[in-house]
Structure formats: C-alpha cells, structure tokens
Design a protein that fits this description.
By secondary structure, the chain is α/β, with parallel strands linked by helices. It contains ten helices and seven strands.
C-alpha cells in the first residue's frame, strides 16, 4: 500500500485534485495532516469522481501519526537545503516505493502549497524525492506534483521486480523516534555533546545518518540493546564507586 500524505494543505481544491490524480493512477490511501478546510465543496468538485477517496481520507494532527505503521517514508522537495538526506529523482523514488510496498506500507509526504515541508517534517523521511523542472521556473502546483508522482508509481508497478520484499521490515517511524530519544538520553549521560557554535546539529546529523541507512526493526532493536547495555554498565560502575 502506498499512502499519500498532504501536510498543512491550505486550498481544499488541491485536496480534491490530488484525490483525482491518485484514483487515475490506481492509488487509494489519502491522509491529511492539519488541512485548513476539509471536508469542503471545492474539494469534492475538483475530485471529479474520486469522492470515495475523500470520504475515506484520514485526518491527523501530526506527520508522525500520519506515517505510523509505515516502513519507507519519502518526502517531496524542490530545495537544496536538505543535503544530509539521500535525494532521488522522482522515477527512481517511485521504483523504490513500489518495491518497498511489497513488504510494508509506504508514505509519500507532500508539503503546503507555499513553503513545502518543514525541516521537522523532513526529519522523519528516509529519502527525499525531487521532480526535475526547468531552472527558469521550478514551482509546481501541489496537484501537479502529486499527479507526476502517482504516474511514476503506476509506471514503476509495471517494471519493478516483484521479488524486492525485504526479509525483515524497515523499522516503523515511531520505533526510529524511540531510538533517537533513547540515543539522545545516553549521549547526555556520557556527556557527549554537540561542540558546534549553535550546539543543535549533532542529533540532526545522527538522524540523517540512520535514516539513510534504512535500518530494519531488528537493527533498531540491536542499537537500543547496545544503548541499554551502556546505561546498565554506567549504573553498575556508579554503584561500585559508591
């Protein structure tokens, strides 16, 4: 299953247009994060026969809630700012999404019309997806971007090898988040701190490193086991000194 997640969509007509694009390409799971106006008559009008997708659309308060239970998470972007992420062309990303969806649900994030996804939203993604455009005018409407991505997914379904299922599922976003919280706590305990001027980049870089690695559930469990062992060892050492 491939899930389209629209974040902070301001125009209800775009929600309807995305639903239509999805249905044209055989996609059905639509999730809305904090839409400005939904349900809305304009969304229904622009859906043009994809009303069933609108009725089944799930509304969430956070991106984390919207991608819960997914394996691979991809985020659309048109900027160069996210250089710590793995960045794929839309065709490569679509093939990756189709292959990963054999094993577990896949989420594709689309940001608000004016500014796209925030850095906080992007932090949850394993991979960034970019649609090539002319350098003279790179701006794409949300519905246009969704149509291109949906088309590439349909195309990839015809050419992607169906034996791409992983032996072990990718770790779910909520499990990765628990790993990051655990890791940050251990770094505090051992006084391993960000030495940069702002003191705010260390965990972001570690997140990007692990997101690029695409760890599975077993690997996350191993890492958390190591962290727990570090904590237990420090507690025993502290007791001995006492």
């Amino acid at each position: 299953m491939i899930r389209f997640v629209l974040v902070d969509t301001s125009h209800p007509g775009n929600i309807g247009a995305v639903a239509r694009a999805m249905k044209n390409m055989g996609l059905s799971e639509l999730v809305l994060v904090r839409p400005a106006a939904f349900p809305h008559a304009e969304a229904t009008a622009r859906a043009s026969g994809a009303d069933d997708l609108l009725k089944a659309a799930r509304i969430c308060d956070t991106v984390a809630e919207a991608v819960a239970g997914c394996g691979l998470v991809l985020a659309t972007t048109s900027r160069d700012r996210e250089h710590y992420h793995r960045l794929l062309d839309v065709r490569e990303a679509a093939a990756m999404a189709v292959g990963a969806a054999v094993s577990a649900p896949v989420a594709l994030l689309f940001g608000t019309e004016r500014t796209g996804l925030t850095n906080q939203d992007l932090a949850i993604a394993h991979v960034l997806l970019r649609i090539p455009t002319s350098e003279t005018y790179a701006s794409l409407n949300l519905a246009m971007a969704a149509q291109i991505v949906a088309y590439e997914i349909l195309r990839a379904q015809g050419v992607t090898v169906k034996t791409m299922a992983r032996e072990t599922l990718l770790a779910a976003p909520e499990d990765l988040e628990r790993l990051y919280v655990h890791l940050e706590a251990v770094l505090e305990e051992i006084d391993f701190r960000d030495r940069t001027a702002s003191g705010q980049h260390l965990m972001n870089r570690i997140r990007r490193l692990l997101q690029r690695a695409e760890p599975d559930q077993n690997e996350v469990n191993i890492l958390r086991g190591i962290l727990t062992a570090v904590q237990n060892s420090r507690r025993r050492a502290g007791t001995s000194r006492s």
